[in-house]
Amino acid sequence: MWKTRRTFLLRTAGTAAALGTLLLVGTGPAAAQSAEDLKRRGLAGETLQGFLVARDASASARVDAINAERRQVYEQRAAQEGVDVGTIGQIYAREIIEASPPGTWYQSSSGQWVQK
Question: What is the pTM of this model?
Answer without folding.
Answer: 0.72
